[in-house]
Amino acid sequence: MATQSPRCFAAIDFETADYERDSACSLAIVKVIGEEIVSRWVRLIRPPRRQFVFSYLHGIGWKDVENQPNFAELWPEVARQFEGVQFLVAHNASFDKGVMSTCCVKAGIEPPRLPFHGTVQSARKTWGLHPAKLPNVCQFLKIPLEHHKAESDAEACARIYIAALQAEKPVKARRKQPC
């Protein structure tokens, strides 16, 4: 019987400069193999416009990113972070997937064809949490969080997904027992 290789996923978090999905100004990727965080990667990104609407949330402004690579220039590094990854995890998966997809399309890059899993859904399904905003889930699980800092949000997301996997283990084991 062949042994199955451990699950490998990447938790991601984007911060954006404005309301447009192409305005990524920060990206963090936390890679997990099995249930262990094996790498953390974070970069600032120069968005296509100088105007920042969300600086009050994440503290990033034009002066922080004006000399940073744009998304297309950063993509080779991002792609390397996704090597060996089976799926992506994000707290609000539709937002991060939308930012990734829009930034890729605008840069002329084929978006990665990796499935996305959302930790909002995991928190609701696993622990019945409502509201399931990132700070609420982190508080429930006692995960440290500096909200709207991409590196902290991505790591929290990875830890939430790992906790959900661990919480499911006893349920899966019970299902295998005969009646």
Task: Tell me briefly what this model is.
The protein is of the alpha/beta class and 179 residues long. The chain has helices spanning 55-58, 62-65, 71-81, 93-107, 119-127, 134-141, 150-176, and strands at residues 8-16, 24-33, 36-44, 87-90, 116-118.
Give the mean pLDDT. 93
State the secondary-structure class: alpha/beta
Elements, N to C (H/E): EEEHHHEHEHHH
Strand portion = 15-25%
Rg value: 17 Å
Query: For the terminal residues, how far apart are their CA atoms?
Result: 26 Å
| Biggest pleated sheet | 5 strands, mixed
Oligomer: single chain
Helix-strand blueprint:
Elements: E1 8-16, E2 24-33, E3 36-44, H1 55-58, H2 62-65, H3 71-81, E4 87-90, H4 93-107, E5 116-118, H5 119-127, H6 134-141, H7 150-176
Report on the architecture of this protein.
The structure is a single chain. This protein is of the alpha/beta class and 179 residues long. 44% of the residues lie in helices and 20% in strands. The chain contains 7 helices and 5 strands. A 5-stranded mixed beta sheet has the order 3-2-1-4-5, with helices on both faces. It is globular, with a radius of gyration of 17 Å. The protein starts with 7 loop residues before the first strand and ends with a helix.
Question: What keywords describe this structure?
Answer:
single chain, 179 residues, alpha/beta, five-stranded mixed β-sheet, 7 helices, 5 strands, 44% helix, 20% strand, globular, disordered C terminus
